[in-house]
Amino acid sequence: MKLRLINKKDNNDYKTVRVGNIEIGGEQLIMMAGPCAIESKEQMLASAKAVKEAGGHILRGGAFKPRTSPYSFQGLGEEGLEILKEVGEHYQLPVISEVMDPRDVEMISRYVDVIQIGTRNMQNFSLLKEAGRANKPILLKRGMAATIEDWLMAAEYIAAEGNQDIILCERGIRTFENYTRNTLDIAAVPIIKSLTYLPIIVDPSHGTGRRELVAPMAKAAIAAGVDGLMVEIHPSPCDALSDGPQSLELPEFADLMVETQELHKMIKNVHYLK
């Protein structure tokens, strides 16, 4: 694999990506949480309040939704971004949302603190190049059928345009297994850490598609050495316009925050003792 810009130089070569006062890739386990899709201001206010009170760090919400069916809810677009920005500022939470079109990178940069490139666009090379010219951190999700080399080369496209504030996100890949929505590749975490200095987070919501599996897979990711997590939450998952079955209820998210922070602290202490 011929990485030129994001390759790991030595065992102590780790990069932190700053989002406001937050460091991704440092000592703290970073939690990004929020609804899959922005549906209304009320929904986002309730979600942001839960994220803030539980100690979450970054508010997520989709304004442009690439859906398998063209008849599914496609998101509120720029109106949704306006809601996300307003709610994030109200609760003093940085915000992240997905961009799908290179022509929208400049526009979305006005609203978000982190630009997300989703699984379906991981090899949209025009989008990767445009994101590389943006003055914002980029979260790059692994493509649903991408090898680790494909994924890292996509990150190299962004870095080659001058932006090395890249966060990688393992969100599950497609295999022959159909019990879960995707197969979450936990092994990708230590592999990525051996190949590149970029931080990596895990999305157990998309990785499994099942609410009851989010917590155990989040904990497995922490044990593997992940730098952060991205989970989907909703005030009423049964009424969600997108991805309700994998979205945690707000009290479930609060419990997950306690459990994951305690586990992360315990594992850090074990590593320190070594």
UniProtKB/TrEMBL annotation:
Describe the location of the DAHP synthetase I/KDSA domain by residue ranges. Answer: 21-266
What SUPFAM superfamilies does the record tag this protein with? Aldolase
Claim: Nucleus is one of the keywords in the record: no
Tell me if Lyase is a UniProt keyword of this record: no
* Swiss-Prot/TrEMBL keywords: Transferase
> GO molecular function terms here?
3-deoxy-7-phosphoheptulonate synthase activity
As recorded in UniProt, its EC number(s) are: 2.5.1.54
Pfam entry (one): DAHP_synth_1
Q: What class of enzyme is it?
A: transferase
Specify the superkingdom. Bacteria
Name this protein carries in UniProt = 3-deoxy-7-phosphoheptulonate synthase
